[in-house]
Design a protein that fits this description.
The protein folds into 2 domains: about 160 residues, GAF domain (Beta-Lactamase), CATH 3.30.450; about 220 residues, PPM-type phosphatase domain (Phosphatase 2c, domain 1), CATH 3.60.40.10. It is an alpha+beta fold. It starts with a helix and ends with a strand. The protein is elongated. It is built from 10 helices and 16 strands. Helix 1 runs antiparallel to helix 2, helix 2 packs antiparallel against helix 5 and helix 6 packs antiparallel against helix 7. The protein has a 6-stranded antiparallel β-sheet with strand order 3-2-1-6-5-4, with helices on both faces. A 5-stranded antiparallel β-sheet has the order 7-16-15-12-13. The longest helix is centred in the middle third of the chain and has 47 residues.
């Protein structure tokens, strides 16, 4: 009797010690090793394995298994699966006599399993975190006392695993937040630092992303003879993926405009490269133009980008895209067109986030409202004009969260 009491006291001390270790461990691998070592010591068994629960795939998989390679299997299979499904300790004195036992691991490793104690690991809310399995009690079979010790150990281990999962999730969110902030800074740095100063003209660019990073970009590119290349591009979606796509598009346009100012050639070459690089569900709408302030023309290629608005004292002229978006087909047919800019005329280029912003009822802001706003406010300085347009869109949406990136480029010939 005294020997049994001494053993119980010793095991309880071991459990208290392992509880302290689990509370002090912030590394998952070390935590799992601690639990396995404690299991082997407290239950006096040859091997122990922790199977973590993959909720998305409904599978159990091993991260620590003494003497065994990593294992993954459906969460309702085998003795571990039975413990997970029933949320009970499963004590099997003769493994090979139980039809639920899978002998494949024994055959692969040369190990001979005699008896098994499997017990579920749960958090405080009763959610399954995994299964802990002890193999081959050194002094016969696992006893009811072992089962009780396993319940105590599993309760501690389940809470520790849940805590660790929350810590890792928090750390991953912090890492992603840092990465997104870095990506945002890099993307914002790629936008023009200031609007170009062109005699006789006012030019403005504006951007507001839906996420930390966006799938829109704009650029003003100095060329020969005082001309300027103008780019407005919108990749499908928003976030890091589209941000990388428009960054590639911008780099290609800049590089090609340094070689040729033939807009059709530039657009076709950019399209060809993007078509090779992007998946079938990705594309870019783009306006690529060259402003010639001496001759008051804006030549352009509109690859899926539209409507294009020319606001003048005579009203608002609306033009559609001249061809398909970039990367839809390998060979792009997108002719060069031209705006002839009279005094007081303003070209307004907006990505579809302006037009597609919705009211609480789901109705889009739409082209008609954009045109009406521009006609009523054409006298405003360009930066104020686009800022006020954004305010009008947000008021219309009644602060419905912005679902798409908003980017604008405006070019006005002064009177």
């Amino acid at each position: 009797m005294g020997h049994a009491t001494d053993r119980q006291i010793q095991n309880l001390r071991r459990l208290l010690d392992v509880t302290r270790q689990m509370a002090a461990t912030l590394d998952l691998t070390r935590l799992l090793e601690t639990i396995v070592e404690a299991t082997r010591a407290v239950l006096d068994c040859e091997r122990a394995t922790i199977f973590l629960y993959d909720r998305d795939r409904h599978e159990l998989y091993s991260r620590v298994a003494t003497g065994v390679e990593s294992i993954r299997f459906p969460a309702d299979r085998g003795l571990a699966g039975a413990a997970a499904a029933r949320r009970q300790v499963i004590n099997v004195p003769d493994a090979y006599a139980d039809p639920r036992f899978n002998p494949d691991v024994d055959r692969e490793t040369g190990f001979r399993t005699r008896n098994v104690l499997s017990f579920p690991l749960e958090n405080l809310s009763g959610e399954l975190m995994g299964v802990l399995q002890a193999l081959n009690k050194r002094s016969g079979c696992f006893t009811p006392e072992d089962e009780e010790m396993a319940r105590v150990l599993s309760a501690q281990a389940g809470v520790a695993l849940h805590r660790q999962a929350l810590l890792e999730e928090f750390a991953e969110k912090q890492r992603m937040a840092r990465d997104l902030e870095l990506a945002r800074k890099i993307q914002q740095a790629s936008f023009p630092k200031r609007n170009p100063e062109i005699p006789g003209y006012e030019v403005a660019g504006w951007n507001r992303s839906a996420d930390e990073t966006g799938g829109d970009c704009y650029d003003f590119i100095p060329l020969e003879d005082g001309r300027y290349g103008i780019l407005l591009a919108d990749a499908t979606g928003h976030g890091i993926g589209p941000a990388l796509i428009v960054a590639e598009c911008r780099s290609l346009v800049r590089a090609l405009l340094s070689v040729t100012q033939d807009l059709t050639t530039v657009a076709c070459r950019v399209n060809s490269i993007l078509a090779q690089d992007l998946s079938d569900d990705r594309f870019v709408t783009a306006f690529l133009g060259i402003l010639d302030a001496q001759h008051h023309t804006l030549q352009y290629v509109a690859a899926g980008q539209g409507p294009l608005l020319l606001v003048s004292p005579d009203g608002v002229e609306t033009r559609g895209a001249g061809g398909l978006p970039l990367a839809i087909v390998e060979r792009l047919d997108c002719p060069t067109e031209e705006f002839r800019l009279k005094p007081g005329a303003t070209v307004v280029l907006l990505t579809d986030g302006f037009y597609e912003a919705v009211s609480p009822a789901g109705d889009p802001f739409g082209e008609v409202r954009v045109v009406d706003f521009l006609q009523r406010n054409a006298h405003l300085p360009l930066e104020q004009l686009v800022s006020d347009l954004y305010t009008a869109v947000r008021r219309y949406s009644h602060e419905v969260p912005q679902s798409d990136d908003l980017t604008a480029v405006l070019v006005r010939r002064n009177a």
